[in-house]
Amino acid sequence: MSSKYLLRWAVLASAAIGLIAVACSSDDDGDGGDTASMNGETLQTVLDRGELKCGVKNSQPGMGNLDSDGTFSGFDIEICKAIAAAIFGDSSKVEYIPASAGDRFDLLAAEEIDVLIRTTTWTFSRDVDLEATFAHTTFYDGQGMMVKDDSGFMSIADMDGATICVTTGTTTAGNLNDTFEALGIAYTPLAVEDDAGSQANFLADRCDGWTGDRSNLAAQKSSYPADGGGPDALRVLPEVMSKEPLGPATRDDDNQWSEIIDWVVLGMIAAAEDGVTSGNVAAEAANPSSAEIGNLLGNTLNIGELLGLDRDTFMQDVIAQVGNYEEAYDRTIGVLLPSEGTANALWTKGGLIYAPPSEVVTSV
């Protein structure tokens, strides 16, 4: 058997296989199932509309926040921009749609948003029951507990009988209950709809503790009102109650669209691993310093075509306009929670942030 080249960016070839399968199914005498959406219905809808509809949070500095000047900022916002850059070559073509903890998956299912990037935890029930497809994790988080600095609480074990502010529609209520049950201590949950509700109750001393993702607690601490004592009035306890892998989510009905979202994220990670930045991407595109970089930037491996995009150099726009993973992280959530020494560092720096390799494999 003669040799042939199998081009692959790890499992990226599955995108091409999916497209072939869809093409073949169009000749099938069956009902076709989800053929239309699997063949890129979401991508075409976004292209025809001329902008990406991104479901985001609007109250968490560093991740997703509506700033006083009316603009959105944060790490999740940067991922939205990266997807727009990949599709349109223009990172500004995004409509940010605030999604609450309670309605975010309804917005996704109703196709009112194209992708949900709102500090959303990847769980079994969300993946299966809510028919969501999660991209690779962009931020490894965990649930924590915040208290008043003068409270005397040094650990969760000290909080027997405490009242805890907890947001509805999140994974935090179950994690909170599991933690207190395991410790054998009692507590009273005070349900709130959002961060503003937790803050109001905390300022009024109706809650002894404020629980949520540790990234969110750090953000809320950083912007705690001066009349409540400012950031120094609060303290985050050391315990981590859960695993909270956060990342983009799409609908299950369009494999091609899900692949595009996933590989934009992985492309940003790969760029950080390879040292490709917004500052040197043009030079690397003109003369790639490695085969890996050549593949990433579309010089030697047409990853855009494999994904169904008509732009083989889409990652050049992503990196030039938004930056690689580390650049986007450091200027947003990294200001509050530096990645050094955490799971959110690159794997080369002891973390969990990792992209599959890009390579050309010779097979017999």
The counted number of beta strands is: 17
CATH class placement of the largest domain: Alpha Beta
Total domain units: 2
Radius of gyration: 22 Å
Derived from helix and strand composition plus strand pairing, the structural class reads alpha/beta
CATH fold type of the largest domain? D-Maltodextrin-Binding Protein, domain 2
Output mean pLDDT. Answer: 88
Architecture per CATH nomenclature, i.e. the level-2 architecture of the largest domain: 3-Layer(aba) Sandwich
Indicate the percent of residues in helices.
Answer: 25-40%
3D shape? globular
Strand content: 15-25%
Low-pLDDT windows of residues: 1-37, 360-364
CATH superfamily label of the largest domain: Periplasmic binding protein-like II
Tell me the span between the first and last alpha carbons: 7 Å
Number of helices: 14
The side-by-side strand order for the widest beta sheet comes to 12-11-13-10-14
**How does the major sheet shape up?**
5 strands, mixed
Overview in brief:
This protein has 14 helices and 17 strands.
Explain this structure to me?
The protein has 364 residues and is of the alpha/beta class. It folds into 2 domains: 4-140 and 246-363, Periplasmic binding protein-like II (D-Maltodextrin-Binding Protein, domain 2), CATH 3.40.190.10; 143-242, D-Maltodextrin-Binding Protein, domain 2 (3-Layer(aba) Sandwich), CATH 3.40.190. It has helices at 13-25, 35-49, 75-88, 104-109, 124-128, 172-183, 195-203, 214-222, 255-274, 281-286, 291-296, 303-307, 314-321, 325-330, and strands at residues 4-8, 52-56, 59-60, 64-66, 72-73, 94-98, 115-116, 132-134, 139-141, 143-148, 162-167, 187-192, 209-213, 234-236, 244-246, 249-251, 359-363. A hairpin with a 3-residue loop joins β3 and β4. α1 (13-25) crosses α2 (35-49), α3 (75-88) packs across α9 (255-274) and α3 packs antiparallel against α13. The radius of gyration is 22 Å and the shape is globular. The N and C termini lie close together (7 Å). 45% of the residues are buried.
